[in-house]
Structure formats: structure tokens, C-alpha cells
Design a protein that fits this description.
Blueprint: E1 10-17, E2 20-28, H1 32-38, E3 45-58, H2 63-66, E4 75-81, E5 84-88, H3 90-95, H4 100-111, H5 115-121, E6 122-135, E7 142-145, H6 159-177, E8 187-189, E9 194-195, H7 201-218, H8 221-238, E10 239-243, E11 246-251, E12 254-256, H9 257-269, H10 277-288, E13 291-292, E14 296-297, E15 300-302, H11 311-327, H12 336-352, H13 358-373, H14 376-389, H15 419-439, H16 442-462, E16 484-486, E17 489-493, H17 494-511
Antiparallel strand pairs: 1-2, 1-3, 3-6, 4-5, 4-6, 6-7, 8-9, 8-17, 10-11, 11-12, 12-15, 13-14, 16-17
Helix pairs in contact: 6-16, 6-17, 7-8, 7-9, 7-17, 9-10, 9-11, 11-12, 11-13, 13-14, 13-15, 14-15, 15-16, 15-17
Amino acid sequence: MNKAGILSGEAWFCVRQGGKAIRSGWIPAIGIADLRRHVQLRAGEIVEACLVNRMQDVAPRQFSKVFFNRARGLVGMEISFRGDTSRIAPTRMIAANLSFERALEQFLSRQDISLETFIAHGALRTISTTQCLLHGASRSGELELYRGSTLVIVTETDSRGMAKELANGVGHWMINNQSPEGAIPYKYWPSRGKVSPADNAIRNFLASWSLARWGRLNGSPDLKDAARRSLRFNLSRYFRPIGNGRGAIVESTGAKLGAAAVAGLAILENPDHQEFLDELSMLCSGINSLVDSERGFRTFFFPEERDGENWNFYSGEALLFWAEAMRHGLPAAPSLDLCVRTFERCRARHYRRRNPAFVPWHTQACASLHDQTGHREFVEFALEINDWLLPMQQWDGLPPDMQGRFYDPLRPEFGPPHAASTGAYLEGLAAATVLARKAGDQARISAYELVVNRGLRSLRQLQFRDEHDAFYVSRKQRVMGALRTEVYDNAIRVDSAAHALLAATRILRSEGGDRGN
């Protein structure tokens, strides 16, 4: 390596069959044309290759300033201590869902040394490479990768096409992974090929809701059946009467306002909602019982000590449910006057302490209430809060595969970048775009459509779209169409898929001429 840090003469390869690693290692420099022959690549196999362009020394004390998530998968790392060296290629980190921190922890554990000892006597280097996939003897050519995937290139007029591809993929994943009883895995680890034992009722009901909406728009009997089974399974698992004609969604951690609201929305959206009218009525009565004269809503049925948590999410989910319950003429639905007073309380509290999590749910509630009342204040507030949200979408200065996500690095307390967050924000922005169209506000229409388009690019980038995105996955049927949490984190969660599907269907429905909720 010369003083500039340039290294020539090395490459990483990993031959895979059906996603499983067969043989791998570091080899001397070799041309792409010769690599297939050198690793004895056969038909049905692929090889991931990283050709080293540069290695750069990093002082161990500077670890966190160089080896952070944004760099994971773009650079690999070399760790050395007293003659023992571990070198991890960028694509290997993606395939193993391995963070820099975890890689260093594993090395220190094998060496049986402390971090302090390593900082004093160890060495680190970054590894920058050109990444590609080569197919076996039956195919020719190579595919260039960026952080272990292929880049989605956005065009300003392709929102509908991206939304349709996104929805088709998510719907396929949900149906393909649904059990006969109706359960859809809450969380799946592609690198391990295992389902997580974690669970979350709200996110499971989001899947029921999104499937029902996509089934209605798509007209697919399979989707409608999947939505029915998902809803029936989730209600049987979580719904409980809690007294005085009220019902709630009960988990081991308590009963949340948001869970009752999302379950209610899933029932209202389902074409077979008549089957679940008793649960719907009791859920509505339960939500009505959590009205608060100051905050708009309390957020927990129980335990009492958790009341107030997640207010930004749950208050909007509840207000949206109320609006849709009114639209459907549900007997237990609140009066318009109560909806308006509760909206005003939520608006006042948001102004006192703004949070982006508030925006998408309350925007959708405002859209529904405006449809039913024509009150201008709902439009004005929805457009105002979405204007405030827009700068949180990242674009310029970001790696191309990250462009379009939502994250404010100056306000990390708003939460990390996440596929589910991007999907949720797009739901609200799609509703805000419809309101801007109704208001004839061309400047906002243009601004929102651009942000929606870029957000769809981000979600499509996170989606397992084809065999190239899943080159390291052995159980491909468990991942195709699902969304990774981030470009450097391939964990799959059902709410990431559900929010993406809800956003895509709202975009497709509004562009198809339906301006309703």
C-alpha cells in the first residue's frame, strides 16, 4: 500500500448456491473475466465479489467516527491485533447483517482482550471495494452492486408505477408468509432464516388493514381472503371485553388506545366487516371512554402508569378511527362536535411540542373529516403540518441508496431512519396531496408529489425486489416483496410492509380519481 492508501492485488469472493455460502476467501488480484474460472463457478451458483480499491488506516480511538451505520456495506473493515487479522468485506457485512460494533466485539472475544487493550495495541483499516455478482456457467456478464443491492433510479413521473410495484410485492410477501390460521410473521431475520419471537398487536393489525385495502383496490379474491383470515386471527388473539360494553386489544404489556383504533380501522376496511360488528362496536365504546378534556385522548386503558405514552401516534390513530366510524354510520361513533373539539385539543398540544410522528395520522384524520364536513380548518392544519415535515426527508449529500428516507440528524430524539417511518409519512403526504389538489394549491401539489416520489424510491430500494437483492438468502420465499429496515439492516418487520402497502394503495387510489379516505 502506498502513502495515499491505495492497495492493489486483493479481492473477496463468496460462492453461493441457493443463497448458502459454499466457499469463500480472499485471493490475489484477478480480473472479472478470470474470476469465474478461478473460483470454479458452476451452473446454478453465483459469486459475490469485492475488488479492493483502497484500504485506509483508522486510529482505534476514531472507531465510531468512521465505522457508523451509513458506511456499513459501502466499506468493510480490517481488524488486527498482534499478528492476528480479521478482514470483513462490505457484502459480507450486508449478508450477515453484521454491524461494525458487533464485528469488533466478536474479534475482541476471540482474542480475549478488552476494548482498552485493543485501543492501545490494535489496528483498524477501512476496505473500499467495487462490488459485483457473477452467475455460473449458464449465464454471462456481471451485475454491479451498491451496498449489496442494485440501485433504484427515480424519475419524476413514475410514482404510480413504483406504488404499484411496491404494493404487488408487499401483497405477495404477506400471502406467501401467512399461516393457514391467518398469522403473518411480525419480524423475520433473513440472514438467520428465523422468525423472531417478538410481537406487537398494533403492527399485526396494520397488516390486516393494509391487506383489506389492497384487496378492495386490486379486486383479488386471494387478497380479500388473506385480509379476512388475518383480521380473524388477530381479533381472536388480542380482542377482549373489558367491561361496560367496552372492548380493547390486550397484550402482556397492557391495552393501548392505538391498538384499539387500528383494529377498528382494519374491521371497517374489511369487505366482510359484518362478521366483526360486535368487536367493532365494543372497540368504539372503548375508544370513546378514553376521551380526555385536555389532551384529546388518554393513551392506555391499562396500566394507568403508562397513560400518556405514544400520544403522538395514538391520538391520531383514534381520531382517524372516529372519522371513519362516522363515515360508515357506526351507531357508537362520536358526534361531529366531539370530533372537532378533540381535534382542537390535539392541535393545541401539537403546537406546544411538535413531533413528526403526529403528522401522518392526524393528516389522514383531517382528510376524512374534511371530506365529510368541508370545514376549511382541517385542510389548513393538515397542509401546515406537512409543510413542517418536508425538510426531514433526506436527499442531497446522502448515499444514493438512502435518498428519500425521513430522518432529522439534528433531532435524533424524533427516532432513527426506518422503513416503517417512511411508509407512515408517505401515507400522510399522499392524503395531504389530495387536500392540496382540492385547494388548488399548485405549489404544494408540486412539492408533495416530489417528496412522495422520492419516498417511494426509498421504499422500493428497501424492498427485496428480485434474486439479486436476495443473493445471500436461502429461504427466498420468506423475503421476496418484504422491506428491509434500512439499507444496512435487512431485518424484516410486518409494519414496514403494512405502512408501505397503505401508502401505495392511497397513492394509487388518489391518482385513479378517488379522492376519499
